Amino acid sequence: MSATPAVASSIYNTIALVVRPNTAGIEDSVRDVLDFLKQSGYSVVFETETAEHLNMPDIPSMSAQGIGEKADVVIVMGGDGTMLGIARQLAPYEVPLIGINQGRLGFMTDIPRDGMLPVLAKILGGTHKAERRSLLEGRVLRDGKPIHIGLAVNDVVVARGAGSGMVELRVDVDEHFMYNQRSDGLIVSTPTGSTAYALSAGGPLLHPALGGIVLVPIAPHALSNRPIVLPESSEIVIEIKRGRDITVNFDMQTFASLTAQDRIHIRRSPHTITFLHPEGWSYYNTLREKLHWNEYPSGDGKI
């Protein structure tokens, strides 16, 4: 690792670290970041689960709520799943997030491990690009009473079990009937999630600045069922008409089991999350790097 870079005067004081557990070799990277932050004069805390997995008892720990109330910025060392989990918990507190990629794809954890300290120095010194992302909130109602409430950075997904048949869903938008759909399920996605499961199911890419909501059917029975982009002000109600072993999940991380006549009310959350990117960051660069837009198909590349 190169020498610790100097840090300019920072607008941040307390920095929280959230680290993906059970990642081989991650302790060395964590120690490098800790040494850098301490030498730069920052107060550092671990998120509670991070502290439980790392043998570094000299670093104090806080719950997500404590971090939201006390920390000025959060550094997430892991993959996009780690970022999704903590982002949902911190959304009500408006604490900005910085992502160092220890995973595979790294759409949200966009700082590579190699050379991370000079990049952190610049971001914490105020040289960065701040970007706000929207979330979805969903309420699952059974007999008119809520049984589950969740937030999603990427998507809310209603889907059948692996061994069951198609589900039948009724979808209403802003109290207007849209359609009855027979399919394997339905994805309701934010622009952030438009590069995740929704994209794999044939949905469109949405630039994060657009703020729309995407509905993408999963393997619909009728070929006329197509993805649609709705205004971000829309309220979507999905009613389970028929099916077995149906679940609704939020970012594939929190689940609720559903039965016939359950209704899921989905709308944009009043909360947002803020990512701090390196100077010069571009959404289009991310698409090229992660989705390989700049590569020709196999062959000689000639048209």
Automatic annotation (TrEMBL):
Record's catalysed reaction(s):
NAD(+) + ATP = ADP + NADP(+) + H(+)
Cofactor list: a divalent metal cation
Q: What is its EC number?
A: 2.7.1.23
Q: Where is the active site?
A: D80
User: Highest taxon of the source?
Assistant: Bacteria
Q: Name one GO cellular component term.
A: cytoplasm
- Short name of one Pfam family for this protein? NAD_kinase
> What processes in GO biological process is this protein linked to?
NAD+ metabolic process; NADP+ biosynthetic process
- Give the UniProt keywords, A-Z: ATP-binding, Cytoplasm, Kinase, NAD, NADP, Nucleotide-binding, Transferase
Where does this chain mainly localize?
cytoplasm
Record-stated family:
Belongs to the NAD kinase family.
* Function (record text): Involved in the regulation of the intracellular balance of NAD and NADP, and is a key enzyme in the biosynthesis of NADP. Catalyzes specifically the phosphorylation on 2'-hydroxyl of the adenosine moiety of NAD to yield NADP.
Q: What is the protein's given name?
A: NAD kinase
The source organism is Pseudoduganella buxea
Query: In the UniProt record, what gene is named as encoding this protein?
Result: nadK
